[in-house]
Amino acid sequence: MPSESAYMIVERVSGKHDLKEIKRGLDQLHGVTSVSVNPSHNLVAVDYDSSGTSYDAIEHQLNKLGYEVAADASNINTR
Fold it and tell me: Is the model's pLDDT at 12 over the cut of 60?
Protein backbone atom coordinates (compact mmCIF):
# COMPACT_ATOMS: atom_id res chain seq x y z
CA MET A 1 0.00 0.00 0.00
CA PRO A 2 1.89 3.10 -1.23
CA SER A 3 1.15 5.78 1.34
CA GLU A 4 1.46 9.46 0.47
CA SER A 5 0.50 12.79 1.99
CA ALA A 6 -0.92 15.93 0.39
CA TYR A 7 -0.72 19.36 2.01
CA MET A 8 -2.79 22.17 0.51
CA ILE A 9 -3.57 25.77 1.35
CA VAL A 10 -7.32 26.11 0.84
CA GLU A 11 -9.17 29.43 0.61
CA ARG A 12 -12.19 30.32 2.75
CA VAL A 13 -11.80 27.73 5.53
CA SER A 14 -13.43 29.07 8.66
CA GLY A 15 -15.56 27.60 11.37
CA LYS A 16 -16.59 24.11 12.35
CA HIS A 17 -18.97 23.74 9.40
CA ASP A 18 -16.10 24.04 6.89
CA LEU A 19 -13.94 21.64 8.88
CA LYS A 20 -16.66 18.99 8.96
CA GLU A 21 -17.58 19.49 5.31
CA ILE A 22 -13.98 19.12 4.13
CA LYS A 23 -13.33 16.06 6.29
CA ARG A 24 -16.58 14.40 5.25
CA GLY A 25 -16.07 15.16 1.56
CA LEU A 26 -12.48 13.90 1.43
CA ASP A 27 -13.19 10.82 3.56
CA GLN A 28 -15.54 9.71 0.75
CA LEU A 29 -12.62 9.30 -1.66
CA HIS A 30 -11.39 5.73 -1.99
CA GLY A 31 -7.87 5.51 -0.61
CA VAL A 32 -8.01 8.46 1.81
CA THR A 33 -6.84 7.29 5.24
CA SER A 34 -6.93 10.54 7.22
CA VAL A 35 -7.85 14.20 6.84
CA SER A 36 -6.67 17.03 9.07
CA VAL A 37 -7.75 20.67 8.74
CA ASN A 38 -5.95 23.60 10.39
CA PRO A 39 -8.20 26.66 9.95
CA SER A 40 -5.67 29.11 11.42
CA HIS A 41 -3.34 28.37 8.49
CA ASN A 42 -6.03 27.33 5.94
CA LEU A 43 -4.11 24.06 5.71
CA VAL A 44 -5.62 20.73 4.69
CA ALA A 45 -3.46 17.63 5.18
CA VAL A 46 -4.53 14.34 3.65
CA ASP A 47 -2.90 10.94 4.04
CA TYR A 48 -3.86 8.56 1.27
CA ASP A 49 -3.07 5.32 -0.52
CA SER A 50 -1.80 6.39 -3.94
CA SER A 51 -3.10 3.19 -5.52
CA GLY A 52 -6.63 4.30 -4.59
CA THR A 53 -6.58 8.05 -5.27
CA SER A 54 -4.26 10.87 -6.30
CA TYR A 55 -3.32 14.43 -5.38
CA ASP A 56 -5.32 15.64 -8.40
CA ALA A 57 -8.41 13.69 -7.31
CA ILE A 58 -8.18 15.21 -3.82
CA GLU A 59 -7.84 18.71 -5.28
CA HIS A 60 -10.79 18.03 -7.61
CA GLN A 61 -12.94 16.87 -4.68
CA LEU A 62 -12.11 20.05 -2.74
CA ASN A 63 -13.13 22.11 -5.80
CA LYS A 64 -16.42 20.18 -6.04
CA LEU A 65 -17.05 21.02 -2.37
CA GLY A 66 -16.56 24.71 -3.19
CA TYR A 67 -13.05 25.18 -1.80
CA GLU A 68 -10.29 26.50 -4.03
CA VAL A 69 -6.77 25.22 -3.53
CA ALA A 70 -4.55 28.30 -3.39
CA ALA A 71 -1.21 26.49 -3.14
CA ASP A 72 0.56 23.21 -2.61
CA ALA A 73 1.84 23.40 0.96
CA SER A 74 4.11 20.36 0.88
CA ASN A 75 7.17 22.49 1.63
CA ILE A 76 5.56 24.82 4.17
CA ASN A 77 6.25 24.27 7.87
CA THR A 78 3.55 25.76 10.12
CA ARG A 79 5.01 24.85 13.50
Answer: yes
